[in-house]
Amino acid sequence: MNKKEFIEKVNKLLIKQFGIPERNKKLPDTLDLLIATILSQNTNDNNSYKAFRNLKNKYSSWKELLNEKRISMEKEIRIAGLAKQKSETIKNLIVQLNKKTGNVSLDQIDSLKSEDAINELIQYKGIGVKTASCVLLFALDRNVCPVDTHVYRTVNRVGIISEKSRDKTFYSLNKHFPNGIAHSFHTNLIRLGREICKPANPSCGVCPLLKICKYNNKKIDKTEAGKKREFMLLDNIV
Could you name the CATH architecture of 3-21+146-237? Predict the structure, then answer.
């Protein structure tokens, strides 16, 4: 089984376990999504959403940030953590977009090929490959699978990829990626990483990928208490 076939097999098993993830029928604005993704770094969804809404409620358009002091933005997004760093990234993005295109918009990347779009986005200070790829998947509906901490851990454990960094994993994973499955594959792998394939104590006994997983340190609790715990976990998942 080659890598492409392996990915397709994993995707089918994940869908069988978790179903096909829902997604919004209307794609979000590209710049909105990029700023929301910046805010989501190293925090939970609830806090990043509150920070994003704070910005949207205060400013009628992102262009207003051109003349806004960074410290004012920092106050609005403090709930998301790393407020100084994130406000600097957002401020720099807005200023550089305006300088480069004469407008505060990311419409110019819509027509670019995925690789070129990622290369364009990562030119802006503070925006990495993971953030750029999230924009492509969730705002532009490209068949690109972002690699966060959960995806990085799971694809390397299972044996789809064998890389030492997230960025290298991203490029290796997305090379010849199967058509049309990026959203379900990415979303379900995150769920697998959060609920089953955890960093320290993975629940391998209930993993839908157990039979094809190449991880050498599988943890399967064969005691009665362990079986009961894994049964309860599986019951909650399905």
Answer: Orthogonal Bundle (1.10)
